[in-house]
Amino acid sequence: MPILEVKNLKVRLADQIVLENTDFVLGKGDTLAVIGPNGSGKTTLLRAILGALSYEGEIILAPETRIGYVPQKIDLERDLPITVQEFLLLKSMQGESSAYSPRQALELVNLSADFLKKRIGELSAGEFQRALIAWAVIDRPNLLLFDEPTASVDVAGQETVYELLHRLHDKYDLTLILISHDLTVVYRYANKVLCLNRAQVCFGAPSEVLTPQELEKLYGGGHKFYHHTHEKT
């Protein structure tokens, strides 16, 4: 049984269609990369899956699906006098029963228990991103949504974050949806790709659907793309 099925999805914002004609199915353990130019509806798709937007069509989640979400930007002042432990405990204050303790959640993202006492503002960009992933996985979700998970992280930190997500995916058989602008990430970590430009342009295995013709259709002319294949490790 699919964990997620999207049928003929259409989203309107302020009477303008921002996403339409979108259909895809994900099974347990799939990693889907969502690509497309800015303003193409990628974040809109995630928000629709989360139930944060009204939409037409169908979004069908398998029974007992638990969703974790890491947004591209989080409305949290980094200079707030709040520790990492207090930040993670906010999930429990929302009335949700956390499957992991804050200490266990940090262990999942390769941060030591010493970070529990650190203030959010003391963390580097990469450490803060891992704290956000800990927030997302503390309830032990089986579907994880990431909106450009390395947007604020330097190049060295990006590799760390993606390897972490890959390890969590393999260890816990998670289904991942990643928004990314990096085709290398798509080929290396995803077994499926969804191309959006306010509507679905392509969907399938990256090696099969990311042809020069489809990429030109997605991003327009004047761009040169090079097809590199990567083996997942």
Automatic annotation (TrEMBL):
<keyword id="KW-0813">Transport</keyword>
<protein>
    <recommendedName>
        <fullName>ABC transporter domain-containing protein</fullName>
    </recommendedName>
</protein>
<dbReference type="GO" id="GO:0016887">
    <property type="term" value="F:ATP hydrolysis activity"/>
</dbReference>
<keyword id="KW-0547">Nucleotide-binding</keyword>
<comment type="similarity">
    <text>Belongs to the ABC transporter superfamily.</text>
</comment>
<feature type="domain" description="ABC transporter">
    <location>
        <begin position="4"/>
        <end position="223"/>
    </location>
</feature>
<dbReference type="InterPro" id="IPR027417">
    <property type="entry name" value="P-loop_NTPase"/>
</dbReference>
<dbReference type="InterPro" id="IPR050153">
    <property type="entry name" value="Metal_Ion_Import_ABC"/>
</dbReference>
<dbReference type="Pfam" id="PF00005">
    <property type="entry name" value="ABC_tran"/>
</dbReference>
<dbReference type="InterPro" id="IPR003593">
    <property type="entry name" value="AAA+_ATPase"/>
</dbReference>
<keyword id="KW-0067">ATP-binding</keyword>
<dbReference type="InterPro" id="IPR003439">
    <property type="entry name" value="ABC_transporter-like_ATP-bd"/>
</dbReference>
<dbReference type="GO" id="GO:0005524">
    <property type="term" value="F:ATP binding"/>
</dbReference>
